[in-house]
Amino acid sequence: MDSSKSINSNSSDFSTSIGDFKLEKEIGEGAFSKVMLATNEISSKECAIKFIKADESISEKNLKSFFKNEVKVLKKCDHPNICKILGYSYRDSVPGKENYCVSYIALEYMKNGTLFDILENGALEAKYTRVLFKQVLSAIEYLHKLGYSHRDIKLDNILVSSNYDLKLADFGLASKSKKSSTVKGTLYYMAPEVVAEKEYNTNDSDLYAIAIVLFSMLTHSMPFNVASKKCPLYRKIMTDDWASFWKTHSSSKLIDNDFKDLFAKMVDPNLELRLSISEILDHPWMKGETATKEEVVKHLKTRIQSEVNLTKTQNKEESTNMAERTGYFNIRSAGKLMKYLEEFAKNEKLNYKTCPNYYRMIAEIGKKPKDLVLQMNILKRHESYQRCVELILINGKKKDFLNFKSKVEEFIASRQNN
Ligand SMILES: Nc1ncnc2c1ncn2[C@@H]1O[C@H](COP(=O)(O)OP(=O)(O)O)[C@@H](O)[C@H]1O
Ligand SMILES: [Mg+2]
């Protein structure tokens, strides 16, 4: 019998060796995949192995097509800021498991996590942001010249190499640069023309997404929830009420007039006016102070080595101010809730450290013994659950956050009393 299976999210499901690779530990998880650190038994080199994850919400056929797509695009790429493919298999047998096959992609191992992880320690000063952002621009320029669009550019899909260079990854949604009207990508990074389900050019929407990445790097928050009229902050942009938009973000000390001008032009809904990559590079903000490579490495090293300190007064104040004024939370301010969940996970001996962010940590909790699942379901039934999960990743409405937080507090207290 010939049955090919996607990997299940439970890592004990597969053996510790696949093909030439000895699997070491889980290092990441995305919507479609589980990623493990592995060693090539022939070369002794470390690499990352990305497996397709089984999920009821999406057919295996579709998953395989994402997977084959990613392999196809990655094989064409050869750029210092794009994560390299080292091998792949659509059906590799698993030792000791008859009739069981897995599909995987072997990738260059990005030892220092994602850009999202880097930002957990706060905003990056402009001099570092410029250097790192240029690397992202260079990757996208290369990809577009090759005739492809990425279509899911975001902090989690930009990885940090052992040399502290940024590399674009996750090409599951990439396609030939073209006109499309399919809503693809991640909501926070979706251009207005994508959200509106109009016909759009896939390269233009990549350029919009990098504006959101740039904003997050420099401010440690998202500019708005979604590029749609429904989002009050985005409405300000559409009505050209930039003054009010920037007032909302006035706690971000690193925003200057040049940056305001650059960002506004990068997210322009008018595609004729939205900046191209060369125009971005020529913008006065990009010509500002730039750190040397050594300084960038030194800075990123300290960020990666230092534990995220969620109780730092300065950060706490920054979050509270932001929340009070805007009704929105930035990445840091969701930290308190994360902290609760982290402590909870620790007490329950859940493997939270292997989860790249806390949305996934909740998912981990969801898989644990029945009574925990039941109790977590109380939270899940809460109508704001879905949005709070988004908030944990990026930001969200203050009311939802507070509701959710008090539920978590109650839940933790009830467990501690028992
Ligand atoms: N080459 C790699 N080296 C180290 N970590 C990786 C690598 N590729 C992916 N990861 C981790 O796994 C996560 C999911 O990988 P990704 O390719 O984005 O999958 P998905 O398509 O499911 O989003 C990433 O956000 C990152 O944390
Ligand atoms: Mg991803």
UniProtKB/TrEMBL annotation:
Signal peptide (residue range): none
Database matches in InterPro entries: Atg1-like, Kinase-like_dom_sf, Prot_kinase_dom, Protein_kinase_ATP_BS, Ser/Thr_kinase_AS
GO CC terms: cytoplasm
GO molecular function: ATP binding; protein serine/threonine kinase activity
Family matches, as PROSITE patterns: PROTEIN_KINASE_ATP, PROTEIN_KINASE_DOM, PROTEIN_KINASE_ST
Sequence ranges assigned to domain Protein kinase in this UniProt record: 21-286
Binding annotation for ATP: 50
GO process terms (BP): regulation of autophagy
Keyword annotations of the record: ATP-binding, Kinase, Nucleotide-binding, Serine/threonine-protein kinase, Transferase
Assembly information from the UniProt record: Monomer.
Family classification: Belongs to the protein kinase superfamily.
Name of the protein described by the UniProt record: Protein kinase domain-containing protein
